[in-house]
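During the no-cost extension, the postdoctoral fellow (Dr. R.K.) reprocessed legacy sequence entries with the updated structure-token encoder. One reprocessed record is reproduced below for audit purposes.
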Amino acid sequence: MSNRLQVLIPEELDAELRKAASRRRISKGEWVRRAIDRALADERAAGDPLGALAALAAPTADIGPMLAEIESGRE
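Re-encoded structure tokens follow.
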């Protein structure tokens, strides 16, 4: 089920939103939904530092090989 949300925005912001949505070939509504989703994900991550770190999906390895790789780059 979907809920309707009505938000009043200035004409300038609406024009900018229309252009941004057009560049991505999506509707203004979809652009706004994605922006809200990203903002809420940031809020959730701010309350969960370990979750934010895990969300980076950065490469990991055992500490020994990582330190050796770092040191080899300094030479």
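The first helix runs from residue 11 to 24. The two ends are 59 Å apart (CA to CA). The remaining legacy entries will be reprocessed before the final report is submitted.
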